[in-house]
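question for whoever is on the cluster today: can someone run the full assembly for these? two chains, 312 residues total. i dont have access anymore since they changed the login thing
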Amino acid sequence: MSLFRNIVFTAVIAGLLSGLLLTVMQSFSTVPLILQAEVFENAAPEAGHSHGAAPSAPGAAAPAADHHHEEEAWAPADGFERFIYTLAADMLSGIGFALVLIAVSEAFGGFKGWRSGLMFGIAGFLTVILAPGLGLPPELPGMPAAELGPRQIWWVSTAVCTAIGLGLLVYTRSAVFAALAIVLLIAPHLVGAPLPPSHETAVPMDLYARFVNAVYATNLVFWAVLGALTGVIRERFRAGEEVSAGTPARLASR
Amino acid sequence: MVLNSAAAAVSISASKIIPLSMTALLGLFIVGFVGFSHLEVVHNAAHDTRHSLAFPCH
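^ ran it for u. tokens below:
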């Protein structure tokens, strides 16, 4: 059981640190843009009119807005409370991603220092951010999108296919598997992500462009730091777990 | 190098399979809860995170 305990411990430390870094980066980049977009979202319940003509009756317009549920359910108050919940969600995501990252790496022999951790982190970025983002780009509040369920299914399928494809490319050496890997990497995008019937939105395009850039930039840093940290911490806590494999692995990392 | 990684991939001992799959499942559960749960309260709490991590939202 010491393996499970050590991995969880490593993932918690790496997830907390990289989640904190991610939240700091987000509060300077993505979150202000989300708040700006929410102004447009709330001003124009009927997407498509950027001039925000005053709705005749707020009660009648409410069901049309796709955000009306936020009035019903609890939500953190804007400001500090909202920041704390974002921080908690970022840290939890970091811990969750780190757990999966370490489990996969251990199945293929384990991290050998920060460098292989960094490589796994970059692979995580490709799998979880870039590949799904090609079909379902980051969204601002108030932007039109297809039904949530099919998008989530496409997102998960794309991430799984990309992960398997990258794994095959790195850990096999036969042409058949390489061809299969390429098929797996491309297939989700040939199938295509579920798209909304209309792309009209009240959110200005330059705001959206800045948001997409910020999402990719912050997540690349997040995944690189998460991977490198898990590599370093995992190696440090491996001591005593497997006596025979410890020394050569440590030498190889130099 | 090729042989090494192939050997490493094959040599996962049976004792490692259970803790590793438990770890991966725990991680997927956490990410799924934060990023994919349809519960309104969870969605609202993790709203900015979901948008900033490009998870499907709304």
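summary bc i know u wont read the tokens: DSSP finds four helices and no strands in chain B. The interface with chain A takes residues 2, 5-6, 8-9, 12, 16, 19-24, 26-31, 33-36, 38, 40-41, 43-58 of chain B (CB under 8 Å).
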